[in-house]
């Protein structure tokens, strides 16, 4: 058994990439400190910001909610009920979010696709082959809508390091310059869109799961049944293999990407397209009719 670096207690928790052993009592505080560092490094948040954190009921978003609250930020949750019936996914995840909000004593909002005239992701998946992209557009739309309506100036999401690295790798393989330009842990507000931050970008999936475990977070273990995108899963597996042979390489990869962008000031710009108001709902969009109103039309026709 290794010994905890901080208190000397015997422990099985060892972070290879940091060559650091921590006991289950010292581990959560260490993670919180890492997140705090990321927030400060990228100027993500101030204590007088009003934050809306998008919560799915999974380990990453619930951990983020708790960490932001512990760090003293003014934070509320937003849960979007997608109406996914498989394994009772949406009902169960909603229950986890409601119970968790009580546990950490934080307020939250619920948006239901059904109430919004969007039926459910189950229904949308029958019309849109790229279900995740339609779902992503819907989530971004309501995060923005609630933040404007309720006066939140920052939206936080629980993307972890594995998510970010996989996205970066995919964007590099495709050499998708518009996505590469926009990939950064903080996106400034503008054109009717709230500021967006990803405070967990340097917390790996394993670290996040361990945080949830050591702080007793009750989260939904099932992945979204639509998230099984074959290519990105294969990227993730191969990147994990690389990480197991070279501990720390993924953090190095991501960190270098962000640092080189910071130096060049490349991350600051959003899209160069002209922003308009959706002719139906008035939301900011680059098209005449926003993607969500379009989806609504398509499923109700
Ligand atoms: Zn300890
Ligand atoms: Zn619209």
Description:
With 301 residues, the chain is of the alpha/beta class. The protein has a single domain, classed as HUPs (Rossmann fold, 3-Layer(aba) Sandwich), CATH 3.40.50.620. 47% of the residues lie in helices and 13% in strands. It has eleven helices and twelve strands. α6 packs across α10. 34% of the residues are buried. The site of one zinc ion has 8 residues, from loops.
The CATH class name reads Alpha Beta
Oligomer: single chain
The averaged pLDDT comes out at 93
Can you tell me the number of structural domains?
1
Task: Kindly provide the radius of gyration, computed on alpha-carbon positions and rounded to a whole number of angstroms.
Answer: 20 Å
CATH level-four homologous superfamily name: HUPs
Percent of residues in helical segments? 40-55%
User: According to CATH, what is the topology?
Assistant: Rossmann fold
Shape: globular
List the total number of helices.
11
Any idea what the CATH architecture is? 3-Layer(aba) Sandwich
Structural class: alpha/beta
Which blocks of ≥5 consecutive residues have pLDDT under 50?
Answer: none
State the separation between the terminal residues, measured CA to CA.
63 Å
């Amino acid at each position: 058994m290794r010994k905890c670096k901080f208190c000397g207690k015997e422990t099985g928790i060892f972070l290879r990439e940091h060559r650091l052993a921590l006991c289950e009592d010292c581990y959560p505080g260490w993670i919180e400190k890492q997140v705090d560092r990321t927030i400060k490094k990228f100027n993500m948040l101030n204590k007088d910001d009003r934050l809306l954190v998008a919560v799915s009921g999974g380990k990453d978003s619930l951990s983020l909610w708790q960490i932001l609250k512990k760090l003293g930020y003014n934070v509320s949750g937003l849960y979007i009920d997608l109406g996914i019936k498989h394994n009772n996914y949406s009902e169960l995840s909603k229950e986890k979010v409601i119970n968790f909000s009580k546990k950490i004593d934080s307020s939250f909002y619920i948006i239901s696709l059904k109430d919004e005239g969007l039926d459910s992701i189950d229904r949308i998946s029958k019309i849109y082959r790229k279900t995740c992209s339609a779902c992503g557009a819907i989530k971004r739309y309501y995060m923005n809508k609630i933040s404007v309506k309720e006066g939140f100036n920052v939206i936080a999401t629980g993307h972890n390091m594995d998510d970010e690295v996989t996205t970066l790798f995919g964007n590099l393989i495709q050499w998708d310059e518009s996505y590469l330009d926009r990939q950064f842990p903080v996106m400034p507000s503008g054109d009717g869109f709230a500021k967006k931050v990803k405070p967990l970008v340097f917390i790996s999936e394993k670290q996040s799961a361990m945080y949830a475990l050591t702080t007793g977070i009750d989260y939904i273990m099932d992945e979204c049944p639509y998230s099984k995108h074959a290519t990105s899963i294969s990227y993730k597996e191969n990147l994990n293999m690389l990480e197991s042979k070279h501990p720390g390489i993924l953090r190095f990869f991501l960190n270098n990407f962000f640092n080189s962008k910071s130096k060049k000031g490349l991350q600051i710009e959003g899209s160069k397209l002209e922003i308009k108001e959706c002719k139906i709902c008035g939301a900011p969009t680059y098209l005449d009719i926003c993607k969500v109103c379009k989806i609504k039309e398509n499923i109700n026709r």
